[in-house]
From TrEMBL:
Lineage of the organism: Bacteria, Pseudomonadati, Pseudomonadota, Alphaproteobacteria, Rhodobacterales
Family statement: Belongs to the BamD family.
Its membrane topology: Lipid-anchor
Gene: bamD
InterPro entries membership: BamD, BamD-like, TPR-like_helical_dom_sf
Organism annotation: Halovulum dunhuangense
Subunit structure, interactors included: Part of the Bam complex.
Protein name: Outer membrane protein assembly factor BamD
Amino acid sequence: MEGSDLRHWGVWLIALAALSACSREAEVPVESRSAQDLYIAAEAELDAGRAARAGELFDEVERLYPYSDWARRAMIMSAFSYYDAQRYELARSSANRYLDFYPAEDDAAYAQYLIALSYYDQIEDVRRDQGTTIDALQALREVVERYPDSDYAKSAELKFDLALAHLAGKEMEIGRYYLKRGHYTAAINRFRVVVQEFQTTQHTPEALHRLVEAYLSLGLTDEAQTAGAILGYNYQGSVWYQDSFALLTSAGLDAEPQGDGWLSRIYRQVIQGKWL
């Protein structure tokens, strides 16, 4: 047999031996494998891009060796693996178990952050139901309040603001829909939510302008002027104030607070520095 044939034969034998070893490993029952062996196998699955399978193997570590240090480490890795695989309910389940068993461990903040991310990554378009956004806000708040000094608090705060803006955007979309169709009272109710509950978001200037539009359409000039006054006090350089100012002046009105309604109360709070 020539040298090149021998080399090819040797390579074939090595490959066959490797396949045989893999086959034997696959045949070993999970229950017969050590915690370390299962953990290493789970890490290998994760490195190979098979995150869901990795999560299953990490779960086996926890199931078979529940009181070991390997189980504690596997629990948080299970949460991460399922999150990476976009198996969000399973990720939350693993993370919650970790918090139940190890609330004071260093990885507890990360477990809570993974729960928040599992909701945050599922936030839908503003045209759809926002139940997941509310869940994300609650979970993100938990990260900030329970673990303010953790590495995840700042990221959670940023995502909280973005999720809040998402909810405000939902209210704005519905309000615009009602306004365009002449349902002014329904529109006002939506814009009021933005001004009162989501005043730190970028939607507030437009919400105030839409209130000017809606109140003028209903002939409620005091409220329209007061909305314009708040808009001018906080966002005088915005295009929304320019549009509101033009609407008010065309009706012979000023952007000054009038009456004693809910907007007037907000205006007084603004002047006193208690709002925004």
